[in-house]
Automatic annotation (TrEMBL), chain A:
Keywords from the named record: Membrane, Transmembrane, Transmembrane helix
TM spans (from-to): 16-36
Keyword check for Transmembrane: yes
Name under which the protein is recorded: Uncharacterized protein
Domain of life assignment: Bacteria
From TrEMBL, chain B:
Transmembrane region(s): 23-43
Protein name listed in UniProt: Class E sortase
Pfam family for this entry, one: Sortase
Superkingdom per UniProt: Bacteria
Keyword Transmembrane helix: yes
Database matches in NCBIfam families: class_E_sortase, sortase_fam
CDD domains assigned: Sortase_E
């Protein structure tokens, strides 16, 4: 999988590909952190603090 | 012409290797994402609460300043001070617990729904307001969203819980702790634990989850009003 991504990355030199890979990783992390996780968070019963019948 | 046996085995094992490698990469990726999610729960959620608390505490400070200004006004002074109606999600008082640190202060919001508790410790609507007869009940997160009640298990009998409302500063004294089941709603009764009795004193009850990182039980800290200081004009 990562080998396939590496081959698809733009850039002729290794340096350029490392930069492209870093950007891709950062974008993925940002999408997870700011979009996916906030949607997922309410489903995790980690911190229920009220009492109710 | 028959394909040499060695080549068949070589191709077969190449394919198996590719499948295994992809499975391994996917597993590692899933693990990294889960760790990132844990980090988000612990720290990412706190950033939201910190921003909200800044706004809420600012709002409280403005209200206190306004109340002080009104109190100086001669015409207003003789009127009975009206306690403003607090809307759901609005700040109603500042909670300070000196034994958890000099900087420990959270704006208590009205309401205990998910959206309210994200902003800070939440006051159970319908239970007493600070200083009133009955039970001032506040729930707060223990591990996520700044975890305001993370360390309330450290509170000892006799420790102070200070609630600064617009009209006065109320100091409660911790009396006891308890661990209850999530359906034991008696703890939020006007007299904690005794739903049938009419209150003659002012209580405070803090609720959070127990054990940490779990929703199995609730940790409860009880207190009783020790002192009321009217706001100086």
């Amino acid at each position: 999988m990562y080998g396939w991504i590496w081959r698809k990355l733009p850039g002729a030199t290794t340096t350029a590909r490392v930069v492209a890979a870093s950007v891709l990783a950062a974008v993925t992390a940002a999408v997870l952190w700011y979009a996916a996780f906030p949607l997922l968070e309410p489903a995790v019963p980690l911190d229920e603090v009220t009492v109710r019948k | 012409m028959a394909i040499p046996r060695v080549r068949i085995i070589a191709e077969y094992s190449d394919r198996v290797r590719a499948i295994l490698r992809t499975a391994g990469e996917l597993s590692i990726t899933a693990g990294v994402i889960m760790m990132l999610f844990c980090a988000y729960l612990l720290w990412g959620t706190s950033a939201y609460t910190a921003r909200q608390q800044l706004l809420l505490q600012q709002q409280l400070a403005e209200e206190a300043a306004e109340a002080a200004k009104k109190a100086q006004d001669v015409a207003e002074r003789d009127k009975k001070p009206e306690i403003p109606k607090i809307e759901l999600g609005g700040a109603l008082a500042l909670l300070r617990i000196p034994s958890l640190g000099r900087d420990y202060r959270y704006a208590v919001v009205e309401g205990v729904d998910t959206e309210h508790l994200k902003r800070g410790p939440g006051h159970y609507p319908g239970t007493a307001m600070p200083g009133q007869l009955g039970n001032f009940v506040v729930s707060g997160h223990r591990t996520t969203y700044s975890a305001p009640f993370n360390r309330i298990d450290e509170l000892q009998r006799g420790d102070d819980i200070v609630v600064e409302a617009a009209e006065a500063r109320y100091t409660y004294r911790v009396t006891s702790q308890d661990i209850v089941q999530p359906d034991e709603t008696e703890v939020v009764a006007p007299v904690p634990g005794k739903p049938d009795i009419t209150p003659t004193r002012s209580f405070i009850t803090l609720l959070t989850c127990h054990p940490e990182y779990s929703a199995a039980q609730r940790l409860i800290v009880y207190g009783v009003l020790r002192e009321t200081q009217e706001r100086k004009v």
